[in-house]
Amino acid sequence: MFRKTPSKVRDTTVFQEFKNEFSPQVKVFEGLARAFLNRHAKVIFSVMILLIVTSFILTFFVLKPASGDQFQGNKKELNAIPSDLGGELSALQELSSQAIQMNQLKTQIERIISQESISKEDSIYLEKAIKQLEYFNNQPKEDEH
Q: Which pTM does this prediction carry?
């Protein structure tokens, strides 16, 4: 009763079956659409250009955004954010900025180490960079209590 009936053609998909079922109607529609587009190509192109120019004019010269309404809407949205989520977002931002700083320090350290001779400024920078990396690595984790 619940046996799967094997298909004779294993590469048959639902889309192919829809195409086989409705191909005469699709071909008729394609023919009508192609004939319409070929007959009225200049008009369609002109209307498209007219719509683009009208949109440009309306956007930059006619319609002025109401900045007060946007500010009030943004303020309401910000008030809807729970306060604990804001703390999590700031912690995430801090972690990402620390990761960026660590990556920059590592690339600078690798650049300095790859040189044959190191200047005094590079040596001082290298010491400071290593201390900063040690500081980042020794930071207490939020998960550990």
A: 0.36
